[in-house]
Design goal:
The protein has 623 residues and is an alpha/beta fold. Helix content is 37%, strand content 17%. Helix 3 packs parallel to helix 5 (101-110).
């Protein structure tokens, strides 16, 4: 090669290059990669770990307990940083790599960046089959790492050390591109990690990256302005893209200026505070009566930064068949959904351009007054469901209210799969922007505690809220993935975990029985057991204490409130547990299309099938 070169192994060059990438957050220059999560095995311990160890002061490596959860922690970090700073997760080959596939799916579904580096088998195949290698008789080029192709935005296998010269910049550009954003994956064969190569010195020059803000086509903007001016009952659906574009304030001002109520998706919740005058609640299957009523009445829906998944649209039953959509999204794939008038561009820039085009136009104030009245009724319904009673067990709604009331303005609520998403989407009253993380794009059980670790890392420094991550998790999810409680104790990153113990997978039991199937294999009391009269009860507080956390079981809502005050005063991760009702839920839901048996001997199933057909008859026909 011409020019000055540096001779490094491929692994050393890869890591050195990563340390030379920077970005700006709130005007402060910071490393683009804040650190790495790693579990080392034979596929990454001898070469990649050697490279990471030498730069640990620039690129700190944190040891996870499970490859899936450390990658989920990286996703939580990226969400907290609103996709402007990333983490790395690295594993060995085989099961270690495959453990990260679920996390990759979570990042892909939620359009979130994480760099995944997995060891791979030998390119030269001389020692084949190596430990943990899965052999394909008809295709020796296949390894388990090919499984990532379905759940990543960028995938490459480095079979020559020179390939990182082109592959690494492409991976970063993909993760920073708001239209293509998602996980990037590099398979690193063991024999290629060790190979030395003369890399051009210029390759390691420092680079400052920025998230692009593409502007929309003028013609589509003009059409959107024209359509909006015909609207009598418009609404805005604010998705996660609003938050990632840093467009919350601009959207709030736009809504007030033009008199358009804002409803939220699960990813969009947290863009506005609960009592902002334009905010009228979450929409969809785990939405509010206020937002769902307005959606059914709306003649023009402005969908901003949302992929319009079924939980947002009520499986496309939430809107009038005559309603027209304006799809504002940086991703063309999302903007054109359901025959929408597509405006492809950055949310912040499009909102500014729409506001300029609309000028002084404003919806009749009666529309916003109606929306605010509906929201006031909804808020009263929440109050009624969250008020304490003399019942033997508190409801999720009551627990959510106590946690919400006790937390500080800049604490971040984190939750994911199970029954809690519906209860926090409806009942959590957001106090400060960007302080709410509900992973429901992939509904990934196990995200919560791992993401709490990522949020704890992200809370300090530019762009961080500075508060404490508050993780709310059910007993079923806790049992599935809890090891990052120990990770946070080991690393010194504090969070508070509230475990609601309702005796199993309660919300899926709700769906099961609602569709005519008797309770089966979801609640612990409905599970098959042998040699004991009833299922074993887990002492979650003692379990958390065994991992080094402070922990306490709360016998009542008053105990929980006192426990939260105690937890805030502690210097380490604290786990609070409370028994909760498995059958009480806040209303407000939209319809949901799920499979129900077409034939059955059970009258309850036949009745559920009839109701499901009625739901499907209400669906908008999309393209």
């Amino acid at each position: 090669m011409t020019g000055t070169v540096i001779r490094l192994t491929m692994a050393q060059a890869l890591v050195r290059w990563l340390t030379r990438q920077f970005t700006e957050i709130d005007g402060v220059r910071v490393p683009l990669f804040a650190g790495a999560f790693g579990i080392f095995g034979h596929g990454n311990v001898t070469c990649l770990s050697e490279a990471l160890e030498s730069v640990q002061d620039q690129l700190p490596t944190w040891r996870g307990q499970n490859e899936q959860s450390m990658a989920l922690a990286a996703i939580g970090f990226a969400k907290a940083k609103r996709r402007r700073q990333f983490m790395i997760a690295t594993s060995s080959i085989g099961p270690g790599a495959l453990n990260m596939v679920t996390a990759a799916g979570t990042a892909h579904a939620n359009r979130l960046p994480v760099l995944l580096l997995a060891g791979d088998t030998f390119v030269n195949r001389l020692p084949d089959p190596v430990l943990q290698q899965v052999e394909h008789f008809g295709d020796p080029t296949l390894t388990v790492n090919d499984a990532f192709k379905a759940v990543t935005r960028y995938w490459d296998r480095i079979t020559h050390p020179a390939q990182i010269l082109s592959s690494l910049p492409q991976a970063i550009a993909t993760m920073l591109d708001p239209a293509d954003c998602g996980p990037a994956f590099l398979a690193l064969p063991q024999d290629i990690q060790e190979v030395a190569f003369d890399y051009p010195e210029v390759f390691f020059d420092e680079r400052l990256w920025a998230v692009p803000r593409p502007r929309a086509d003028r013609e589509s903007l003009n059409k959107a302005v024209g359509l909006l001016k015909t609207a009598k009952k418009p609404i805005v659906i604010a998705g996660g893209g609003v938050r990632y574009a840093l467009a919350e304030t601009a959207l709030a001002d736009f809504a007030l200026r033009h008199g358009i109520p804002i409803v939220e998706t699960t990813a969009g919740k947290g863009g506005l505070t609960h009592y902002h005058p334009a905010h009228v609640g979450p929409i969809g299957i785990i939405g509010s009566t206020s937002a769902n009523t307005l959606a059914a009445e709306a003649d023009v829906i402005v969908a901003i930064g949302t992929r319009l998944q079924d939980f947002t649209t009520g499986s496309w039953t939430a809107f009038s068949p005559d309603a027209q959509f304006i799809g504002i999204n940086v991703a063309r794939f999302d903007a054109i959904k359901h025959r929408a008038l597509a405006v492809v561009g950055d949310a912040l820039e499009v909102i500014k351009d729409l506001a300029a085009g609309l000028g002084s136009w404003r919806v009749d104030p009666a529309h916003m007054n109606h929306a605010q009245a509906l929201f006031k009724q909804w808020d009263g319904l929440l109050d009624a469901h969250q008020a304490p009673t003399n019942a033997a067990l508190p409801t999720y709604a009551q627990v959510v209210h106590v946690v919400n009331a006790t937390t500080d303005e800049h604490d971040t609520l984190i939750s994911a799969a199970g029954g809690l998403p519906g209860e926090v989407a409806k009942g959590w009253r957001v106090k400060a922007p960007n302080s709410f993380d509900l992973e429901f794009g992939f509904s990934c059980m196990g995200y919560e505690i791992a993401a709490g670790w990522g949020h704890a890392m992200a809370n300090s420094g530019p762009g961080g809220l500075g508060g404490t991550p508050i993780v709310m998790v059910g007993d079923g999810t806790y049992m599935m993935m809890n090891s990052d409680i120990y990770s946070t104790v080991l690393s010194g990153h504090k969070m508070i975990v509230v475990v609601c113990d309702n005796g199993g997978f309660a919300v899926i039991n709700r769906l099961q029985q609602a569709k005519g199937v008797p309770g089966f294999n979801n609640l612990l009391v409905d599970c098959r057991v042998q040699n004991r009269a009833e299922p074993l009860h887990v002492d979650f507080a003692k379990h958390a204490e065994a991992m080094g956390a402070a922990a306490r079981h709360c016998a009542s809502l008053a105990d929980l409130e006192a426990g939260l005050v105690w937890a805030k005063s502690n210097d380490r991760t604290t786990v609070l547990t409370i028994a909760s009702d498995a059958h009480a839920w806040v209303p407000g839901d939209a319809d949901w299309d799920v499979g129900v048996p077409e034939v059955s001997t059970r009258p309850a199933v036949r009745s559920a099938r009839h109701l499901q057909e009625q739901i499907r008859a209400k669906q908008r026909v999309g393209v």
